[in-house]
Specification:
By secondary structure, this protein is an alpha/beta fold. The longest helix has 22 residues. It starts with a strand and ends in a 9-residue tail after the last helix. It comes from Candidatus Daviesbacteria bacterium RIFCSPHIGHO2_12_FULL_43_11. InterPro entries: Glyco_trans_2-like, Nucleotide-diphossugar_trans.
């Protein structure tokens, strides 16, 4: 019988962790949580679900904590989740089914996915940015999940927000996070497939939650600018304050039809575009290490 481990990295997620862990009850055989010394009840709640807790200082590069959770997991397969993600019943059944398939059956299953063309188009975009994902071996060792992102009362399906493919299921020892930057893709030693059913991401139910997460993300982008030694000059000022945000807003609203998500889609595109000037402004103000700014 194949064993599945749920692996999470958390920091002050008491509002999310319960629903996340409820969604994998009956699906996984163990829950491994690496917690960044949460000051709330995150660890206590996780323990009530029988989770194995390891508490360490919170790491702003969250991938380090995620990778530690992967290393501590003992299952044959690892289901990697964030605390604000939920596994639906249909996705759970699909996970249990696909890990029992041999490679021939997985190949056939991939051909029959109803959104196969959309998924492969999305994967191609990721590979243009990140390089090839997986290798040409015959063994399927990891799977993308299409992810539905919840923003201010609505799941976004346009504006480039869907399928938002994320590798969330992989064989133990066959994938890892390089832990170098926030945009990185998992490194996979084997073939990568897709599952059809969506992973629900309750990312931004309120605008305050969105701005809090967005601010942390912008700090990491500013840190990348510093490490990449991006110039502090008039051209870069023009690029980050005007060219990039206008290009991004038009791309997501027109080419990717973000306007079809209504007001939420417009707001999401607008504030997503604002990450460029906000990150560059924080970079301009920084000296040495990036500090968290309001």
């Amino acid at each position: 019988m194949l064993k599945i481990s749920a692996a999470l990295a958390t920091h002050n997620e008491e509002k999310n962790i319960t629903d996340c862990l409820k969604s994998v009850q009956g699906l996984v055989d163990e829950i491994v949580v690496v917690d960044g010394n949460s000051s709330d009840k995150t660890a206590e709640i996780a323990r009530s679900f029988g989770a194995k807790i390891t508490q360490i200082p919170n790491d702003p590069m969250f991938h380090n904590m995620k990778q530690k959770a992967f290393d501590l997991a003992t299952g044959d397969w690892i289901l990697y989740l964030d605390a604000d993600e939920r596994v639906s019943g249909k996705l759970g059944e699909e996970i249990k089914m696909v890990i029992t398939m041999d490679n021939t059956r997985v190949d056939e299953y991939q051909k029959g996915l109803k959104d196969k063309d959309l998924f492969l188009k999305h994967q191609k975009i990721l590979e243009l940015r990140d390089g090839q994902i997986g290798n040409g071996t015959d063994e399927y060792v990891a799977f993308f999940f299409p992810r539905l992102n919840y923003f201010l009362g609505k799941y976004l399906r346009f504006g480039g927000a869907y399928p938002d493919g994320v590798i969330r299921l992989f064989k133990k020892g066959k994938a890892y996070l390089p832990c170098k930057d926030i945009h990185e893709q998992m490194v996979v030693d084997g073939k990568v497939g897709w599952l059809q059913n969506e992973l629900l991401h309750i990312s931004d139910p309120t605008f305050g939650r969105y701005m809090e997460r967005n601010s942390r993300y912008i700090n990491l982008i500013a840190d990348e600018l510093r490490r990449g030694k991006v110039g502090k000059n008039p051209w870069q000022l023009l690029n980050f304050f005007f060219v990039k945000p206008i290009w991004w807003f038009l791309l997501t609203q027109i080419r990717h039809k973000g306007v079809l998500d209504g007001l939420q889609g417009i707001i999401f595109s607008f504030f997503s575009a604002l990450r460029f000037p906000r990150a560059y402004f924080r970079y301009l103000r920084s000296k040495g290490e990036i500090k968290v700014l309001p």
